[in-house]
Design a protein that fits this description.
The chain has 290 residues and is α+β, with helices and mostly antiparallel strands. The chain has 8 helices and 5 strands. Helix 1 packs antiparallel against helix 2 and helix 4 runs antiparallel to helix 7.
Length: 290
């Protein structure tokens, strides 16, 4: 799939020393020292929170519980990556050189991109302290991530007005997470409705199959063409041999005819000579003529 994970959270007001969290030791925490806080998150087509995953896992058979545990570890991985990314982002609550007034600083959005590893990218849309983020594959179109981030921000701001968001930002992590829990179904629906690579992969697979069929057909046509050329060459050879046979047969017939005529002439001469001999012998030689 293209989009793997989505979250809504907040960045720390001041940047501190950051560390790496062990999932086994932070199963009930949505924050880490020096990092940001993840209020609510969702994995594509999976359960949205660790508590829900643990509750569901306890009711499943051991094999299904193992699969659920694997998904929890994946969710921990995404969540800790998100918290570390948020810990790297800071913004001032008051005016600054870039934003002369506090109102301008609170309404300005900023876009960040992070490379988690070779197969995952993260995109974060930051508005004041509130961060909207997605984790996706590197080949995900920018239009998909931009549209999803914008939709997440609009949906969150539609569910919570500006005063509620400002109040949530002042709460501690547990209270803020509980206050935004109602946004989980919306977030899950948003990430599940994003386009995935499956249709594209299916089209690519179909194109590859069609290409293979066309290649096979072309090879068969070429092979058939070669066979036709061989047959045509053999037919030409047979025609040439037939012509030669006809010429040689006619010449042979002529030779045989002359040979037969020679035999006939020789026999005729022999008969004539024999008759002359008999005639002269019977008549007594020359007297018979005179």
């Amino acid at each position: 799939m293209s989009v793997l994970y989505a979250f809504v959270g907040a960045i720390p007001q001041q940047q501190q020393q950051r560390g790496v969290v062990n999932p086994a030791s932070s199963s009930s925490s949505n924050t880490q020292s020096g990092g940001g806080v993840v209020w609510c998150d969702a994995v594509h087509n999976r359960s949205t929170s660790n508590a829900d995953a643990n509750a569901a896992s306890s009711k499943l058979p051991s094999k299904s519980r193992s699969t659920s545990s694997h998904m929890q570890q994946k969710n921990y991985y995404y969540r800790n990556s998100a918290m570390q990314m948020l810990g790297k982002l800071t913004i001032s609550d008051g005016p600054s050189a870039n934003y002369p007034t506090a109102a301008a600083a609170a309404t300005t959005t900023q876009r960040y991109a992070f490379e988690i590893d070779a197969s995952k990218m993260a995109h974060v849309l930051l508005k004041h302290r509130v961060a909207y983020g997605v984790v996706c594959t590197p080949n995900t179109p920018e239009s998909v991530t931009t549209g999803l981030l914008a939709t997440m921000r609009r949906s969150f701001e539609n569910e919570f007005d500006a005063e509620e968001i400002a109040q949530i930002c002042t709460m501690n992590d547990a209270a803020a997470t509980a206050s935004t829990r109602s946004f989980l179904p919306t977030l899950q629906n948003l990430i599940d409705s994003t386009p995935t690579d499956a249709p594209l992969n299916e089209v690519k697979s179909h194109i590859a199959e069609v290409k293979q069929v066309m290649t096979d057909n072309i090879e068969k046509v070429l092979a058939r063409g070669e066979q036709l050329e061989v047959v045509a060459a053999k037919a030409d050879n047979l025609t040439a041999h037939a012509r030669d046979f006809h010429i040689r047969g006619r010449s042979l017939r002529r030779r045989m005819w002359w040979k037969e005529m020679k035999y006939k002439l020789l026999i005729a001469l022999a008969i004539i000579l024999l008759l002359l001999i008999i005639f002269f012998w019977a008549c007594g030689g020359v007297k018979c003529v005179t």
